[in-house]
Amino acid sequence: QVQLVESGGGLVQPGGSLRLSCAASGSIFSIKAMGWYRQAPGKQRELVATITRSGSTGYADSVKGRFTISRDNAKNTVYLQMNSLRPEDTAVYYCKYSYYGNYEYWGQGTQVTVSS
Questions:
Q1: DSSP of 62-75
Q2: Tell me, what's the pLDDT at 75?
Q3: Cα–Cα 20 to 30 A to 16, which of 8, 26, 30, 47?
Q4: What is the pLDDT of residue 27?
Q5: In this structure, what are the phi and psi dihedrals at residue 73, rounded to the nearest 5 degrees?
Q6: What would the pLDDT profile of 55-75 be if each residue is shown by its tens digit?
Q7: How far apart are CA 21 and CA 105, in angstroms?
């Protein structure tokens, strides 16, 4: 089974930056896409950013120009660089890996808090 371990969350001031990492371990299959989601209190989990096997990226409108998703295939790791953070970015962030064969795995979540 694939296990996803997230790291990099924490407390940051408005306007600050943070980088999240999500590394896959265990049984590895061909990756179709990776993504980052977030869930704030009282809200549904929402898609933040995706990166496909071909390297194409996509972002939610709320984070365009501020967040960047990237990957390191050799390390089976996906990253989310978050700049110009705002209080409304506060949420638990989850990574997701999708594999050919219709396999899908989620990370445990990491808390990001943007506050003065």
A1: TTTTTEEEEEEGGG
A2: 86
A3: 47
A4: 62
A5: -65, -35
A6: 999 999 999 999 999 998 888
A7: 15
Distances (CA, A) of 28 to 44, 89, 90, 114: 29, 31, 31, 34
Distance in angstroms (rounded) separating the CA atoms of residues 17 and 82:
5
At 14, is the secondary structure helix, strand, or coil? coil
**Per-10-residue mean pLDDT for the chain, 116 residues long?**
92 98 80 95 96 94 98 90 98 94 93 97
Three-state SS for 45-58 is CEEEEEEECCCCEE
CA 114 to chain centre: 16
Residue 101: φ, ψ to 5°: 95, 5
